[in-house]
Amino acid sequence: MDKNTEKHKYTSVPKLEMAKNFLSQAEKLREKRLYKEAVSIYLNAILLNREDVTSYYGLGVCYKFLENYAKAIKNLEQAAKLKPDFYEAFYELGICHLKEGIPCGAIKNFVQAIQINPDNPNAILQLGIAHELCDEPDMALMVYEKLIENSPNYIKAYEHKSTLLMKLEKYNEACKTLLDLIKIIPNYSQAYFGIAACLEKTGKQTEAQRYYRKFLQHKPETDKAIYAKTRLKQLKTKHSNYLSLV
Length: 246
Prior knowledge:
The chain is an all-alpha fold.
């Protein structure tokens, strides 16, 4: 054994073992949501092993929860660089860009995550949200529609699509999306409320009343219930006044 090999044996290996110990401690702290405490331990692990993907990723996630998004992005980018097929790193990078108020920067990360794992709907949903925040509603709708096509039971896709359609004042399309959602979850109260609001916007006041009642059957004691009861009363009065004039 030459001197260099012998030196590597007695210096590098212990350092790697120490790094693993620090990583194990940091992971346990992160699981307990002790993010501030975990940060210093992750840093110790990285000082001993600068090629450890897991440490960079864990450190980045901790910084995300501590709302230090710049540092989170820096460490997550390093994790992604060391492991180019690391879905979670690209997904978290996208989330951090959204949190940092850089939605257009998030798009490329979500696209990368989707390319790595096209069957995970979460990154696809976030891609749609990023397009919305970049003022690209048509792209966002395209993403939500594709997501519904690929994952027809993924409830959040219907929620975001219908909400965006309502913002765009496309009430008939929003109503149809929410009706599709009810086919999946028949007792989904928020969908009934949204349908009632859409029907009211399109002048279908009798049908709107019916769906407000359906909502109240499921959620009689909420803030939205107060609004639904008020609208029902106003719509009934409006309908009665109309009949008296006929």
